Amino acid sequence: MRICPLFLSGGSGSRLWPLSRQHYPKQFLPLTGEFSLFQQTVRRVPRLSDGGRPIVVCNADHRFLVAEQLQACGVADPAILLEPVGRNTAPAVAVGALQALADHPEAILLVLPADHVIRDIPAFHAAIERGARAAAAGRLVTFGIVPHRAETGYGYIKAARTEGAARPVERFVEKPDAATAAAYVASGEYFWNSGMFMFRADRYLAELERFEPAMVEAARAAFERATRDLDFIRLDKDAFAASPSNSIDYAVMERTADAVVIGLDAGWSDVGSWDALQEVGAADEHGNVTIGDVMAADSRNCYLRAESRLVATVGLNDLVVVETPDAVLVADRNRVQEVKAVVERLKREGREESDFHRRVLRPWGSYEGIAEAERFQVKRIVVKPGGKLSLQMHHHRAEHWVVVRGTAKVCCGDKTFLLSEDQSTYIPLGTVHRLENPGVIPLELIEVQTGSYLGEDDIVRFEDTYGRS
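User: That's the sequence. What structure does it adopt?
Assistant: Structure tokens below.
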């Protein structure tokens, strides 16, 4: 039995703003411990003796984050499929199924969103074993969460009244109102819809082709025309964009006669909001979850998070306070779902806080804004050992570099030279240049930009190690 984990990592997590942002979404953040949610998802998949190699379907903009976090988990030879556009989960799983079948003709897919929390790992593994047996027999398995309260934020799955671990699905239900949710939980016949699945790759594609043939056609074309880009597989943009957009639930699971649900009681959460994150956190005697440099006085049932400085509260109840270097969120715990509206407004107004943190990650390292005013800005740049920025030029700005740690290899015009700590150089406007770290420790430098326009889009790349245009 070849079980192949398929990790879906396409979400943006906008309800967890300002920590989660478009270019660094929640699945890549260490929200509940040392490892990111994505890494926790990867690490809890059991090491099966005949397991298939992991497959990740992700946004092309997140490819270096995915690769770096997989490497930190010790995952060798993953298949990382890059979505050129978002088309929901059904097409994403389709291309994942095609990759799994290319690796092994009898592959069983274990489909896992990359941003869930599961506390009871042995219970999760036991559910996977039950799911694998049902999937091998041709069933399409969904894992239903045993509900512990009436929850209006999740969809529900009604199971047939039969014996056995894998019970036929009678119906899927959209998010209910409070009274209906309470009746579902009291009946004992309903589960929360987790969005986790297990099935043979060929069975999924066969059922999808029955109900959504255009989707399978587009997925096949996108996969067959895919190109290699370093360690990534770029799906063909035109073919993938032609696919209808739909979820697994709507496209297959609600329409197939072979759907079964396996109950899972393992401390699961989709961490979809700050309130959900508080529920999985370690609360103090006053019900507060505090992270970072926080001083809470006479405050109760709050989620308080400080990322870069002291946060002090007095007399707060049932609030969420999240501080980051460039934004602070203060919200009623009962209205945290509305944070998404804040992100939408930021996007409408063209504010970068919806997409980027002050510290922006790049495949070679990171840069962070320190100061900015008309005609100048100051950044802190960190280049990983062996990291190399693109060979580039700017039309509207000059740059001054001061090395504060490590060694820099600088190409400026027709000159190439080394800079060590406390040394500096000047890159004139319009000059082709490149920065590289030839050393074994991170290179840190301060960059002062001056000019009439200082936007990140004023970069003309001539050569790039990481395949960026």
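The chain has three domains: 2-269, 288-341, 359-463.
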